[in-house]
Amino acid sequence: MWRRFSRLLAAGPGTLKAAIVAAGALLLAAPMAPTDASGAWQLVWADEFDSDGELSSADWSYEHGFVRNRELQWYQCENAFVENGMLVIEGRHETIRNSNHDPSSNDWRESRKFARYTSASVNTKGRHDWRYGRFEVRARIRAEDGLWPAIWFLGVDGGWPSNGEIDLMEYYAGDILANAAWGRPARSGGKPVWNATRTPVGSFGPDWANEFHTWRMDWDESSIELYVDDRLLNTIDVGATVNPPGVLPQYPFRQPHYLLLNLAIGGQGGNPEGTAFPTRYEIDYVRVYQRSWTGLR
After folding, report:
1. What angle in degrees, to the nearest 10, is found between the helix axes of 16-29 and 2-10?
2. Burial degree of 46 (CB within 10 A; 0-12, 13-18, 19+)
3. For the chain, which residues make up each domain, given as ranges?
């Protein structure tokens, strides 16, 4: 954001008044730690996406290829970039050869010869993870057929779903979802346990999908609360999210989690054939706050 202010200053004395006004606006928009009765929140990490180009490799990594849910897109780093103060994850309708193609394989990730769509999935795994806190993501999604944007978190220890999954936001099939999942890993014959809510996009208002919105998670040792624009969508009782005997971690939502941002195409997102491409999932910022007693991480 300060880059925008510096451009005004460089334009010369005639723009000084505008620069001062802009500086005031930037100060108001700068990340401020939220306050409550204890006043204990601290901003511990943020990405404001102020530098055009590639994401910082110190903060983010990428998923590659076909990954999950028999989705249609091929994930590649070229589809995620910073532009005009936002992270853009771009979905494209283009044909990409599957570099892992094996016609004899029973794995769908290898048996497909081509991908007809591309997109990106970025995450903070191995770079940043947190146990408890307030997480805010301001973003704009396209609520269209076949698109499946998400803001979600995975626990650092254990296989899915026993490591714990928190979906601060998913969109597909006309609904906004706010979920958590845990349970015995599928490879051991288990199935995930879901605490999920679905809210029709239409219930938010006619222009909702054209605007930016702030998704927030408040997470502590007792509960996970998932919000959009201060509207509570779901509450998860952390003490009740217990994995089956012998499956670790016992309490998946009492361990650190890392963040993922992605735009899937197809799969549970539906049929994208009637959707215009390229399409964009835009993220204005990510901010993480923790209380002083949670053990900052």
Report:
1. 180
2. middle
3. 1-30, 37-291
| 8 Å CB contact between 21 and 258 | no
Looking at residue 101, the DSSP 8-state letter turns out to be -
Question: Per-block average pLDDT, block size 10, for the chain (297 residues)?
Answer: 44 46 46 58 96 97 97 98 98 97 97 98 98 98 97 97 97 97 79 95 94 98 98 98 94 98 94 97 98 62
Secondary structure (3-state) at 23: helix
Separation CA 80–CA 158 (nearest Å): 28
Q: Tens digit of pLDDT for each residue in 37-78?
A: 455 889 999 999 999 999 999 999 999 999 999 999 999 999
- pLDDT at residue number 8: 41
Which amino acid does the sequence have at 117? Answer: Y
Which residue bears the tokens 């601060």? 168
CB-hemisphere CA count at 13 Å for 78? 7
If residue 4 lies in a helix (H) or strand (E), which one and from where to where? helix 2-10
Query: Which has the closest alpha carbon to 48: 296, 263, 283?
Result: 283
Cite the beta strand spans of 111-256 per DSSP E: 114-119, 121-123, 133-140, 147-155, 165-172, 175-183, 192-200, 213-219, 223-228, 231-237
pLDDT of residue 270: 92
Residue of 288, 141, 124, 292 lying closest to 216 (CA atoms)? 288
Report how far residue 101's alpha carbon sits from residue 108's, in angstroms, rounded to the nearest whole number: 9
Beta bridge partners of 41: 291
User: Domain 37-291 belongs to what topology?
Assistant: Jelly Rolls (2.60.120)
- Tell me the C-alpha distance between 151 and 168, whole Å: 5
Q: 14: buried, middle or exposed (CB in 10 Å: 19+, 13-18, 0-12)?
A: exposed
